Inverse folding.
């Protein structure tokens, strides 16, 4: 049976035959029976009555109190009586869909003519199939609904795409005329009549894979007696173009909701650019259509951007040297190739020249640093200037052969700002993308555009581009990711702002998620008419989709989510990292708010259950599964409790889930059902399920054989999470969170779906509800063997059954055996790598031997401590394994800081063995053929007691045919007994403890000092109380309550740790130093980089602090050092001054490097003289992040929560607006990241001895 939300609703008149009913608590757009000419009353249809369930037909009917237009006082056009036709439909020859509509959807029957669509829905409403008449003469005296395209309206609208989409509904006697300015507008007239005047709602559509499969959830009032009132309704859209980017299969549904427009893409209805500069002027050889195009870089490196290192080279963001005078000629040739390709695809049919060709930068920006480009950028105050100049010149050349050709390009990230004097060519369109000039924050796609500091670049772009490119500016607005995303409350105001700015077309993009259907429908309603009440439309959707009783609770839930966003002071960007669930959940939906949201949703669910409405209940369960349940699962996974197996209360099977939480299987099942019923959004059901499984786990499949027991979690990227060796009962694998004990790793693969072999064809061929339970209670045909097929997905787009990795996991007498065979085409070259995580119970006595493949080496794990490595000498063999002999005297320490990488000799055919003496009397031995591997990497993660072994597959060219198969090396993990390290088997003394060194503080002044270990200047922060947090009318909710906190005295680094200091640390600890300047950097720092703040992740910062005899500051210590005791907003006072710190105003907006040497703004110092506490780079604090910690923290020396998944950043940076440079602002960030945003740190030293304090403070 299909999921209920894809069934069609029909409303019938109740037994009493009551007419329409105005109910202002129900926000549907229903007409009143007594409306006058030209008046449109928006009233409600009262819903109630009894359910009539026709199971055989799959149609759910509801008898309703209040019918559609029955016995209207000014009734003009009787349509049907007692289910029989009264009127006729006069089509006037308009029996085909508009020629501008998608030929593919027309051919498949997804789009019919306006007359057929009208007859179909009227039949669903009344049961009467109205006959067609070719013209009014044929209709005679019968009441008629007349479809016509008016020559007069067409002539008046000529040259005006908005007017060409206008229509008028008007009655003359017993005839209703649907008069349109164009064939496309005639479709809008039909659906406008159905929606605005007959109460139909087209909320969703059904998908099959990524394709349109028919109607989804629709409201179609059922009325055996239907008479239309007198009408005079003239409408035209607010925007000329109204599509949805990449929402696969949605085109026919967009048309029903009066989307698409003129011009429009035949797939999505959108008018948008594409990341394709390097398709038009490719740096390397490539095939474009049927043409082999020679790469240009070898002969014309001057076409490509000059980088900060002084080299010209192609970039990931498809940069070009826009000022090069010869490049436009080659770009014009690339555009001609595209025209030829489109002509070939059209098969001799004329091209639609209204749709622009695409020519734009990559998914980011890399500007050319040559003097000519820099001079133009500075003069025009826009990185877009060189690109617009280049495209203008190319269009001049292209226009000589194709004068009607148009081109569209991006205004995106750095190119967002419009040039001051250069105007785009009259045939050049601009596609503004919701982003920021700085690539790092990338804008706030939940909130308002106007008046939002995070969106000021976007708001300015929307104002400026339409002024220099009138009627040629469209918008690509990212609006959701797979997370709770309450942006619907900003949509109406944002669209009105775009309309006021003169935007021509709006094209949102949705990537799946809980409220995608609501958002898409809401956008289409408001893109047609921006003056509608967005809040009322949201209420209408909730009432219709979930039922009036549950709908009001769902609306309250959405409002609660919106208030969480509004009080967060956060930049929720769908374009970049902060769109993901963990960061959003921590910042926007802390535990107390999440519990309120749970309570509201529980009330909604109970109301829907009481209503006894299976379709609407299904809708609600699906919505909850993708929204609240994902948030709750994220809270569970953020608890810090280890993952583990639990038994599901739903199916009785074992699941591997975060926190080993018994609630998790039920919650995950609802989430999966929600994704299946939703169709998976932009990327399909399989990708949606893959994403949830990879993050939150799933059912376990158990294997038992002669050597032990293994557990596989197929949904968790196919990982083997456990292998317990039978003779000793010891676990050989180390699984932690999403990282299982064994995983297959690939390049260029964005999602993994592991399927039973017999299910591959079924799952890929059709929608199937059992996807959500694919592995629940799965019993492999053989108890010791699990065969699975991995269907590989390239980035972003669907799944291809021709690309399959066949994997067999077996538990044999030899151990845990993994064998793999790949078949099908894949991008070349590719590597089929694997990652093993071996349990390391006693790192202080562990060693690992590498033999085979040209390797013969002993590696020592005793000195693998977090924060450093140390090589030692030895003369020993690995006891009990006969793997090493005494001739090897170099033992290399393996560290979690720098993995040991060893190449495997090409052509080797012997056995490669990695033998780990765990130090507990057991050795884990991983064996495989050396042939087929390129290298082996070892990394000891001591704090987790894990040795991570990565076997990097040799580069291979995939077979072109599925019949050709590539057999990959088999891997076997086994164990054997060895002497315990404690029995004296090791010839090296046990590793000495390595405590953190003590600081050596040299006092230089009353409150100044130097840490002689790294030369850092120190500032003394005296003991005492300070005011922490923000008042109710300021800052984010996680900054409250504001209260006094007492701290002992401490030293803090006067500036962030510099590159020079960090390099010294790396040299002392044998670390490899690779400075990272962060994404969004305009250029590498000027001059000596050693003076700049280093950028690193939290673990690297903590390691440095230990080496320096210091610690990272707690949030309380950092905030007191920044603001003193008076609770000021910024280190220098309460007013923002961008000239007192490294801010966006003096970096990003001046097109200069995003950083400055530390201490560059002494006038911005804190009350204690601490520098750079605002702007420049974010700074790591020691604390785990908890949005509600301030309310439960101790009032003396708070050190933060005991556990968490995100650490805290403080101080803002030069890429974020001033709200984040406030002393109280907090930002959660995963501790392992080092280039999502510029992250540095400074250290704190808490003195232990009197001599470590300033003289006045010594006791």
């Amino acid at each position: 049976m299909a999921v209920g939300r894809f069934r069609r609703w029909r409303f019938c008149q109740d037994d009493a035959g009551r007419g329409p009913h105005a109910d202002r608590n129900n926000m549907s757009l229903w007409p009143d029976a007594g409306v006058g000419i030209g008046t449109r009353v928006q009233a409600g249809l009262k819903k109630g009555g009894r359910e009539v369930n026709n199971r055989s037909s799959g149609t759910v009917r509801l008898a309703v109190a209040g019918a559609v237009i029955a016995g209207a006082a000014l009734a003009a056009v009787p349509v049907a009586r007692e289910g029989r036709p009264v009127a006729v439909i006069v089509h006037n020859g308009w029996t085909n869909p508009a020629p501008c509509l998608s030929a593919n959807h027309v051919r498949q029957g997804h789009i019919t003519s306006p007359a057929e669509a009208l007859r179909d829905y009227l039949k669903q409403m009344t049961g009467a199939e109205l006959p067609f008449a070719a013209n009014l003469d044929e209709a005679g005296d019968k009441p008629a609904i007349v479809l016509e395209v008016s020559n007069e309206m067409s002539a008046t609208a000529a040259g005006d795409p908005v007017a060409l989409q206008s229509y008028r509904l008007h009655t003359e006697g017993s005839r209703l005329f649907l008069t349109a300015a164009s064939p496309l507008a005639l479709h809008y007239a039909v659906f406008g009549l159905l929606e605005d005047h007959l109460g139909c709602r087209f909320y969703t559509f059904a998908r099959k894979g990524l394709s349109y499969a028919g109607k989804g959830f629709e409201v179609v009032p059922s009325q055996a007696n239907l008479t239309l009132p007198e009408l005079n309704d003239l409408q035209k859209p607010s925007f000329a173009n109204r599509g949805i980017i990449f929402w696969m299969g949605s085109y026919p549904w967009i048309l029903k909701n009066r989307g698409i427009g003129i011009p429009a893409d035949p797939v999505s209805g959108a008018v948008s650019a594409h990341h394709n500069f390097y398709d038009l002027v490719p740096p390397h050889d490539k095939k474009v259509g049927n043409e082999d195009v020679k790469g240009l870089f070898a002969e014309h490196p001057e076409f490509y951007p000059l980088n900060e290192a002084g080299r010209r080279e192609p970039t990931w963001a498809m940069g070009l040297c826009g000022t090069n005078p010869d490049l436009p000629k080659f770009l014009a040739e690339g555009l001609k190739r595209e025209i030829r390709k489109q002509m070939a695809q059209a098969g001799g049919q004329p091209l639609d020249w209204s749709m622009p060709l695409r020519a734009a930068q990559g998914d980011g920006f890399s500007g050319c640093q040559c003097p000519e480009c820099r001079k133009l950028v500075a003069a025009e105050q826009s990185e877009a200037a060189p690109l617009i100049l280049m495209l203008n010149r190319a269009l001049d050349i292209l226009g000589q052969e194709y004068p009607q050709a148009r081109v569209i390009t991006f205004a995106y990230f750095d190119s967002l700002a419009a040039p001051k004097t250069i105007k785009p060519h009259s045939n050049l369109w601009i596609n503004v993308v919701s982003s920021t000039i700085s690539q790092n924050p990338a804008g706030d796609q939940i909130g308002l555009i106007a008046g939002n500091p995070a969106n000021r670049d976007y708001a300015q772009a929307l104002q400026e581009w339409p002024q220099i490119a009138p009627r040629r500016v469209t918008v690509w607005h990212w609006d959701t990711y797979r997370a709770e995303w309450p942006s619907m409350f900003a949509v109406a105001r944002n669209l009105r702002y775009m309309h006021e700015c003169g935007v021509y077309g709006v094209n949102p993009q949705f990537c799946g998620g809980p409220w995608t259907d609501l958002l898409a429908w809401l956008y289409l309603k408001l893109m047609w008419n921006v003056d509608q009440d967005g809040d009322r439309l949201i209420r209408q959707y909730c009432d219709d989709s979930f039922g009036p009783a549950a709908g009001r609770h769902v609306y309250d839930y959405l409002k609660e989510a919106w208030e969480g966003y509004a009080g967060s002071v956060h930049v929720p960007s769908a374009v970049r990292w902060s769109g993901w669930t963990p960061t959003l959940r921590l910042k926007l939906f802390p535990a107390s708010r999440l519990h309120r949201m749970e309570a509201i949703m529980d009330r909604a669910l109970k109301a829907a259950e009481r209503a006894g409405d299976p379709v609407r209940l299904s809708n609600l369960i699906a919505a909850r599964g993708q929204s609240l349940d994902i948030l709750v699962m994220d809270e569970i996974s953020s608890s810090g409790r280890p993952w583990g197996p639990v038994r599901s209360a739903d199916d009785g099977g074992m699941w591997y889930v975060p926190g080993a939480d018994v609630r998790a299987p039920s919650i995950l099942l609802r989430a999966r059902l929600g994704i299946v019923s939703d169709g998976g959004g932009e990327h399909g059901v399989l990708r949606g399920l893959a994403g949830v499984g990879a993050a939150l786990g799933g059912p376990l499949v158990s294997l038992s054989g002669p050597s032990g027991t293994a557990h596989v979690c197929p949904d968790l990227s196919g990982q083997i999470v456990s292998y317990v060796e039978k003779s000793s009962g010891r676990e050989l694998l180390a699984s932690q969170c999403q990282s299982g004990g064994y995983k297959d790793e690939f390049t260029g693969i964005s999602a993994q779906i592991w399927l039973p072999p017999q299910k591959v064809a079924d799952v890929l061929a059709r929608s199937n509800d059992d996807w959500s339970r694919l592995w629940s209670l799965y019993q492999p045909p053989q108890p010791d063997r699990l065969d699975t097929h991995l269907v590989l997905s390239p980035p972003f787009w669907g799944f291809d059954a021709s690309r399959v990795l066949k994997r067999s996991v077996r538990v044999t007498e030899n151990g845990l055996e993994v064998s793999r065979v790949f078949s099908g085409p894949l991008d070349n070259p590719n590597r089929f790598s694997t990652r093993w995580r071996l349990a390391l119970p006693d790192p202080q006595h562990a060693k690992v031997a590498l033999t085979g493949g040209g390797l013969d080496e002993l590696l020592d794990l005793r000195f693998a401590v977090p924060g450093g490595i140390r090589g030692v000498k030895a003369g020993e063999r690995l006891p009990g394994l006969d793997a090493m002999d005494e001739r090897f005297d170099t033992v290399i320490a393996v560290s979690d800081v720098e993995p040991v990488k060893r190449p495997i000799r090409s052509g080797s055919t012997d056995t490669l063995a990695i033998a780990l003496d765990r130090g507990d009397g057991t050795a884990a031995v991983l064996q495989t053929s050396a042939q087929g591997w390129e290298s082996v990497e070892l990394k000891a993660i001591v704090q987790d007691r894990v040795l991570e072994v990565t076997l990097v597959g040799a580069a291979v060219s995939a077979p072109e045919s599925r019949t050709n198969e590539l057999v990959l090396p088999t891997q076997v993990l086994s164990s054997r007994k060895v002497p315990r390290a404690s029995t004296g088997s090791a010839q090296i003394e046990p590793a000495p403890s390595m405590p953190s060194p003590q600081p050596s503080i040299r006092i230089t002044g009353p409150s100044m000092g130097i840490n002689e270990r790294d030369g850092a200047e120190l500032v003394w922060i005296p003991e005492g109380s300070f005011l922490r947090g923000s008042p109710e009318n300021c800052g984010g909710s996680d900054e409250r309550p504001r209260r006094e906190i007492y701290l002992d005295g401490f030293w803090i680094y006067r500036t962030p740790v510099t590159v020079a200091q960090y390099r010294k640390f790396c040299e002392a600890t044998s670390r490899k130093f690779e400075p990272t300047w962060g994404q969004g950097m305009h250029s590498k720092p000027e001059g000596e980089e050693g003076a700049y703040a280093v950028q690193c992740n939290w673990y690297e910062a903590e390691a440095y602090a230990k080496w320096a005899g210091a610690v990272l500051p707690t949030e309380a210590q950092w905030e007191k050092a920044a603001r003193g005791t008076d609770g000021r907003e910024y280190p220098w006072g309460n007013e923002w001054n961008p000239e007192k710190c490294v801010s966006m105003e003096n970096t990003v907006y001046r097109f200069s490097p995003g950083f400055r040497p530390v201490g560059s703004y002494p006038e911005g110092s804190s009350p204690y003289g601490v520098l750079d506490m605002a702007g420049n780079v974010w700074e790591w604090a020691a604390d785990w992040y908890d949005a509600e910690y301030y309310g439960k923290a101790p009032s003396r020396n708070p050190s933060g929560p005991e556990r968490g998944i995100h650490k805290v950043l403080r101080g803002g940076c030069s890429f974020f607006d001033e709200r984040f440079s406030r002393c109280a602002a907090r930002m959660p960030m995963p501790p392992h990241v080092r280039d999502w945003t510029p992250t540095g740190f400074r250290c704190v030293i808490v003195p232990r001895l009197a001599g470590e304090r300033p003289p006045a403070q010594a006791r």
Observations:
- Residues 591-611 form the longest helix (21 residues).
- The chain has five domains: 4-236, 277-543, 645-658+676-817, 835-983, 1001-1257.
- The longest strand covers residues 965-977.
